[in-house]
């Protein structure tokens, strides 16, 4: 009995069991327009690099009742598509926005498209998590252990879509649109490049406001669901020695993620008696201005009327889909990670050094649908892709405590970044125009994708002038290989759009990032009340980067590293006293490359700045109220351009100011 009692006293045990469940149901709609110039058939230069040819309108020498205008070009200058020895409108076979298909052409769009579309954006999601574990102390040994399981689902019972459209490129197939759409293109201009405005001749000025111009262009209904089940086990052991080697620590971890994605087409087709948009009976209201009055929008469709019309059409004219149609976007897979580490903490005088290493093995197993050329004997099918890679990650960190208020730190460490496991697949995600069903975008997996690896160097100095203040400076350098990036390209295609966008994830070659970080936290404790509750915080990071992508057309022309702005800073004014706390923060982030494009006109995110306020009042123990104001300056949150210059806007989002009031009670 005495022996048993001593074991209990020497062993301390803490156990826990935790659980969490969250559920979110979101209902939303998206009304959007598509307003653009469209390519039309043009004469093609025999030598596309020739810049000496005159404009087509100045070369007209006559007309033919069948073949249209006759031009004074020779067949050595312009491709004679019909081989009749003369150049006429019948030879205009190249789809282009330019007056000639070649370098003698000038920007001269002759057709445009305007469409209004409506789509529901509902989502149901849930997440359940449970984990159990504990800590055991036995003399100099400490064990920490944990087992967890989580399961999450996200999906939609139905995404409804409907569109009304007129496309000048395809006007013969929809003559009800009228001549406006094949009489002019759209030119864009603005004093502020964030807000390009359409410039149209007077005869086309009603395009946005006249709903009768837009003809019914199609509707569809589909649903999707995805799930992620995660299991994790870990064990950490620490043994305290108390000498030069203060302690040693080691651990193992196992984790597995199993994901599924399923998309189901429910219906697409025609809705009877819809006519044009004005006659459809689907318009709920008109939005006359948005983005500070800069734009007119027009018709907003009624959610209830659109969903009712599509439900009725699906019941009246059901659609049966092929196996390839239903399986094209479906996929499932797993990612399993085995990890182990060991380290030693060493102390001598004012020095403390931690040295160790980590080993991780990652196994990926994906199954996705492969579309084959069925017209030439191919058979579409599900295919499996596997990947297996290991990483050894040594590291050493050192701390030198020069005095009570001065500390120096340094580290050399290795790290890696896994590719998203759905990218290590042979599958393709294909986006089709909801109306024409033509392919507009293909996202391809890359079974040969490698993890990105980095060797990191850090050096910093910290000064603590008082117990609530710190000033620090840090230097860092990263040498990266096999960095992961998304590359986009456009290829010519025999579609209305004329091109298909191809998106692939690739490995780059080498990259490096170097920079300095300055940090300040200062409290004014010594001031007279109530000013002794104030404080300031500031941080600035300045960095330079360079990356070699390995793409042939960029050889010898490195880019700045992806998603690495040269300048980031933030500053805050804080207050904390009498149960009240507040923080007014200003953040700035410089421009950076988000994605690469094959024409080297990459997608850049332009600088972002924001002023936010957070306040909290602790009413009494356990009860508090928060009031936050986000985006006080009412600026953009996301602004991207084609290329580094802000002149060519790609995406622009202004969320407006957000006001949040929260009550919290804990017990």
Structure in words:
By secondary structure, the protein is mainly beta. Helices cover 4% and strands 58% of the residues. The protein has a 20-stranded antiparallel sheet that branches. The protein is globular and about 100 Å long.
Notable traits:
3 helices, mainly beta, 20-stranded antiparallel β-sheet
Indicate the overall shape. Answer: globular
Q: What's the number of helices? A: 3
Biggest beta sheet attributes:
20 strands, antiparallel
What low-confidence regions span 5 or more consecutive residues with pLDDT below 50? 1-9
Class by alpha and beta content: mainly beta
How large is the share of residues in beta strands?
A: over 45%
Mean pLDDT: 89
Work out the oligomeric state of the chains in this entry.
single chain
Distance between the termini: 40 Å
Computed Rg: 32 Å
Helix share, percent: under 10%
**Number of beta strands:** 37
Short note summarizing the structure:
Helix content is 4%, strand content 58%. It has 667 residues and is mostly beta strands.
Chain-wise SSE layout:
Elements: H1 2-10, E1 11-26, E2 29-38, E3 40-42, E4 60-64, E5 68-71, E6 87-88, E7 94-96, E8 111-120, E9 123-138, E10 141-167, E11 187-189, E12 197-199, E13 215-240, E14 245-269, E15 283-287, E16 298-301, H2 303-316, H3 323-327, E17 331-348, E18 351-370, E19 381-403, E20 406-417, E21 428-432, E22 439-444, E23 452-463, E24 470-481, E25 484-492, E26 499-507, E27 510-523, E28 534-547, E29 567-577, E30 580-589, E31 592-597, E32 603-605, E33 608-620, E34 623-630, E35 638-642, E36 649-653, E37 658-665
Parallel strand pairs: 22-26, 25-31
Antiparallel strand pairs: 1-9, 2-8, 3-7, 4-5, 5-6, 8-10, 9-10, 10-13, 11-12, 13-14, 14-17, 15-16, 17-18, 18-19, 19-20, 20-23, 21-22, 23-24, 24-27, 25-26, 27-28, 28-29, 29-30, 30-33, 31-32, 32-35, 33-34, 34-37, 35-36
């Amino acid at each position: 009995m005495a022996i048993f009692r001593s074991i209990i006293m020497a062993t301390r045990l803490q156990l826990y069991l935790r659980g969490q469940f969250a559920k979110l149901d979101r209902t939303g709609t998206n009304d959007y327009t598509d307003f653009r110039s469209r390519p039309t058939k043009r004469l093609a230069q025999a030598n596309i690099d020739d810049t000496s040819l005159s404009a087509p309108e100045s070369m007209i020498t006559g007309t033919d009742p069948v073949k249209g205008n006759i031009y004074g070009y020779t067949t050595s200058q312009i491709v004679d598509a019909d081989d009749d020895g003369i150049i006429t409108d019948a030879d205009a076979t190249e789809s282009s926005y330019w007056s000639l298909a070649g370098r003698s052409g000038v920007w001269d769009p002759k057709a445009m498209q305007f469409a209004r579309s409506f789509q529901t954006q509902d989502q149901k999601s849930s997440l359940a998590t449970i984990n159990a574990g504990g800590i055991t102390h036995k003399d100099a040994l400490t064990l920490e252990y944990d087992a967890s399981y989580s399961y999450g689902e996200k999906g939609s019972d139905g995404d409804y879509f409907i569109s009304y459209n007129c496309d000048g490129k395809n006007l013969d197939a929809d003559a009800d649109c009228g001549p406006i759409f094949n009489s002019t293109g759209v030119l864009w201009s603005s004093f502020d490049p964030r807000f390009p405005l359409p410039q149209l001749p007077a005869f086309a000025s009603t395009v946005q406001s006249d709903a009768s111009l837009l003809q019914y262009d199609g509707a569809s209904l589909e649903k999707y669901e995805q799930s992620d089940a995660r299991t994790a086990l870990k064990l950490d052991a620490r043994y305290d020695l108390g000498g030069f080697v203060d302690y040693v620590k080691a651990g193992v971890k196992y984790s597995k993620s199993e994901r599924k994605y399923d998309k189901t087409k429910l219906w697409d087709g025609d809705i009877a008696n819809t006519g044009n948009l004005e006659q459809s009976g689907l318009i709920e209201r008109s939005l006359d201005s948005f983005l500070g009055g800069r734009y007119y929008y027009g018709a907003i469709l009624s959610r209830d009327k659109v969903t009712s019309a599509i439900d009725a059409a699906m019941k009246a004219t059901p659609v049966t889909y092929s196996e390839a149609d239903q399986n094209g976007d479906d996929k499932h897979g797993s990612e399993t990670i085995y990890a182990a580490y060991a380290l030693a903490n060493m102390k001598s005088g004012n020095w403390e050094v931690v040295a160790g290493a980590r080993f991780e093995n990652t196994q990926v197993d994906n199954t996705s649908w492969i579309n084959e050329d069925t017209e030439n004997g191919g058979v579409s099918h599900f295919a499996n892709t596997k990947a297996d890679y290991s990483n050894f990650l040594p590291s050493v960190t050192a701390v030198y405590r020069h005095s009570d208020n001065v500390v120096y730190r340094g580290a050399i460490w290795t790290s890696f970044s896994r590719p998203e496991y759905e990218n290590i697949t042979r599958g393709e995600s294909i986006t089709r125009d909801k109306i024409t069903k033509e392919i507009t975008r293909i996202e391809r997996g890359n079974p040969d994708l490698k993890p990105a690896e980095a060797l990191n160097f850090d050096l910093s100095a910290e000064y603590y002038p008082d117990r609530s203040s710190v000033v620090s400076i840090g230097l860092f350098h990263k040498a990266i290989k096999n960095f992961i990036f998304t590359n986009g390209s456009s290829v010519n295609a025999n579609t209305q759009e004329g091109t298909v966008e191809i998106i692939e994830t690739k490995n780059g070659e080498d990259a490096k990032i170097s920079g300095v970080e300055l940090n300040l936290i200062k409290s004014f404790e010594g001031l007279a009340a109530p000013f002794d509750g104030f404080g300031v915080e500031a941080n600035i990071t300045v960095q330079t980067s360079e990356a070699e992508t390995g793409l042939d057309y960029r050889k010898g022309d490195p880019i700045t590293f992806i998603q690495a702005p040269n300048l980031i800073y933030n500053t805050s004014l804080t207050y904390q006293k009498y149960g009240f706390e507040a923080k007014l923060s200003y953040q700035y982030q410089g421009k950076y490359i988000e994605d690469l494009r094959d024409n080297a006109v990459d997608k850049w995110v332009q600088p972002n700045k924001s002023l936010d306020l957070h306040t909290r009042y602790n009413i009494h123990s356990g009860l508090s109220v928060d009031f936050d104001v986000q985006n006080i300056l009412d600026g953009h949150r996301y602004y991207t351009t084609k290329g580094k210059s802000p002149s060519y806007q790609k995406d622009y989002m202004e969320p407006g100011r957000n006001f949040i009031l929260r009550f919290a009670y804990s017990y």
